[in-house]
Amino acid sequence: MVTRGSIWLTLPPGFNRHLRPFIGLLLGLLTSACQDTQPHTIVFAVATAPSVLDPRLASDASSERTNALLYDRLVTLDEKGSPQPAMASWQALSPRHYLITLNPQRATFWNGEKPTAIDVAETYRSLLDPAAGSPHTGALSHIERIEVVSRDRLAFRLSRGDPQFISRLTLGIAPAQAIRKGGLARRPMGSGAFEFMRWRDDGGALLLRRSDGQRIALTPVSDPTMRTLKLLRGEAHLLQNDLPAELFVYLDRQQDLQLQERPGTTFAYIGFNLADPVLSDRNVRAAIAHAIDRDAIIAHLFGARAQKAESVLRPEHWAGVTGLQGYDYDPARARALLERAGYGPERPLDLGYKTSTDPFRVRIAHVFQSQLAEVGIRLKLASYDWGTFFGDIRAGRFQLYSLAWVGVNTPDIFRYAFHSISRPPGGANRGGYASASVDRLIDAAESADPDRAAALYAEVQRQVHKDLVYVPLWYESNLVASRGVRGYLPGHDGAYLSLSQVRMVDDGRQ
Q1: Has residue 424 been placed in a domain?
Q2: Helix, strand, coil proportions of the chain in percent (round to 5)?
Q3: Using an 8 Å Cβ cutoff, are 204 and 224 in contact?
Q4: What CATH number does residue 127 fall under?
Q5: Coil/strand/helix, residue 37
Q6: Pair 338, 430 in one domain
Q7: Is 58 contained in some domain?
Q8: Omega before 425 within 30 of 0, i.e. cis
Q9: Where are the alpha helices (DSSP H) in 133-223?
Q10: What is the pLDDT of residue 341?
Q11: Which of 157, 181, 205 is the last residue of a domain?
Q12: For residue range 331-352, what is the model confidence (pLDDT) as tens digits?
């Protein structure tokens, strides 16, 4: 008989004592196989497993959220995008010269060694090498040199003034020796609140909370119904986002579950390949935008747990923008725009759309397909496992796709996603957008004081919105369903940082 956390085995009388050591080995293997589901392990069922546990290289949401648990950073950003001290404090000696002092009480790496200025310098120097293929290179390319002053101090010298430079120092810090050795993506080493224990057989990760030894299993379950069932059966303790509205409604009715909701910053959009001969025509892009009924999707698929969006940053952000005129649902206008572009009943428009295999995202894709069909656009859907899908998007192998920017709380996103120098792998300008005026605005904003920068970033967003680089969709709320734990609160950016406070309870209630 096997029970959770214990294995019972009754041997028949006269059982050969020489075989007993093999039974011990078998029990050890069984215990190892079951260890992730022991009662003291908190199971967090996620839609997608982290894949790259090197903060310099990660670009997908699951990996970045996990890296935030494993690696400390020099600074963190609050909800308004303002920098707050984490591993370090700072002094702006000039807009081109910053002195960083490491906090004496900073946590050690998991191997017991305390991070030094050399580790910080190596982390940032390594990602500046174009050969490294870091998606963060573009936002930090103006670092001219890094000077190690002492064990606890270093200086950044920039090629141009940047009053917002400190807010860019949010990269997780790794040991210099581990960086030189390579392989951090699968064998991480950080000084964060959690230690990486091992990869799970299902592709997830097993983490150890350093403060008290609590284990957290990040368990990938792509199907939302299966994630829900695991929570109901007690096989998971936490779910966050990526569930259709009806499942959240169902979970809300359960007596022994807790649901929490918080407005989010996750910005969903439809992306275009602007090098495509069809989609390079703005009339076609505008027709697609006006053919999509965002209100209906938010009401019926999200259960009103999302808000229409017009730009990557929410309007209340210090660098946000208000007053953008949305691309409202208008099928008649969409047909007229298509006709202007040369398409109509006698010449329908065929386009390819890529998405992941996540059932909820596939469901949204089918709604897009139906809505676009009403105006004469035949959308061919293709869904792939996350690795294949994201690889295609980064390589530019698409016409249309849909993704979401997760955890964005700094205007660095504008260089990262819209500057012409930020095409993959040096950034995330995946559609190949090129605008000399937007480049100039971004460059000027990064060298301006905060008030002037806010005005310049607002103009960037107006231009990007006018050019229809994306079809802006919505900000998705952060929703958490939990059972048997307390203390987990959804962050505004969907981060997993509340795992540092979550605790198990005995009665299954919060």
Answers
A1: yes
A2: 35, 25, 45
A3: no
A4: 3.90.76.10
A5: helix
A6: yes
A7: no
A8: yes
A9: 176-181
A10: 97
A11: 181
A12: 999 999 999 999 998 899 999 9
Place of tokens 């006006």: 290
Q: How confident is the model at residue 461 (pLDDT cuts 50, 70, 90)?
A: very high
Domain assignment of residue 507, yes or no:
no
Evaluate whether residue 192 is within a structural domain. no
Higher pLDDT pick, 138 / 310: 310
The beta strands (E) that lie in 31-142 are given as 41-46, 75-77, 83-85, 88-94, 97-102
Same domain membership, residue 362 and residue 283? yes
In terms of residue numbers, what domain contains 118? 72-181
pLDDT at 39: 63
Q: Into how many domains does the chain fold?
A: 3
Q: What is the 3-state secondary structure (H, E, C) of 328-340?
A: CCCHHHHHHHHHH
What pLDDT digit, counting tens, does each position of 414-427 carry?
999 999 999 888 78
Residues 272 and 326 in one domain: yes
| Largest pairwise CA distance in the chain | 89
Query: In this structure, is the dihedral angle defined by the CA atoms of residues 73, 78, 79 and 81, taken in order, positive or negative?
Result: negative
Q: Identify whether residues 439 and 297 lie together within a single domain.
A: yes
State residue 447's pLDDT score: 84
CATH number for the domain harbouring residue 312: 3.10.105.10
Q: Which residues touch 93 (CB under 8 Å, ≥6 apart)? A: 99, 155
Question: Rounded to an integer, what distance in angstroms lies between the CA atom of residue 436 and that of residue 442?
Answer: 10
Label residue 467 exposed, middle or buried (CB < 10 Å: 0-12, 13-18, 19+): middle
In the numeric block, which tokens belong to residue 470?
A: 């994306």
Burial of 347 (0-12, 13-18, 19+ CB in 10 A): exposed
Residue 111 CA to its chain's centroid (Å): 27
Residues 177 and 323 in one domain: no
Look up residue 469 and give its two tokens.
Answer: 């680089």
Q: Is 312 left (phi over 0), alpha (psi -120 to 50) or beta?
A: alpha
Question: How far are the Cα atoms of 85, 126, 167, 280, 306 from residue 271, in angstroms, in the given order?
Answer: 35, 30, 27, 12, 19
pLDDT of residue 81: 76
Assess contact for 236 and 230: CB atoms under 8 A: yes
Alpha-helical regions (H) of 256-293 = 282-291
Q: In the predicted model, is pLDDT for residue 29 greater than 50?
A: no
Q: 293 and 174 share a domain?
A: no
Residue 246 confidence (pLDDT): 84
CB of 87 closer than 8 Å to CB of 73: yes
Q: pLDDT band for position 1 (50/70/90)? A: very low
Pair 10, 106 in one domain: no
Residue 284: closest CA among 328, 336, 345: 336
Asked if residue 268 and residue 313 are part of one domain, the reply reads: yes
For 332-343, letters b (16+ CB in 10 Å) and e give ebbbbbbeebeb
Return d(Cα 315, Cα 311) in angstroms, integer: 8
Name 150's bridge partners: 153
Region at 308 (left for phi over 0; alpha for psi -120 to 50; beta for the rest): beta
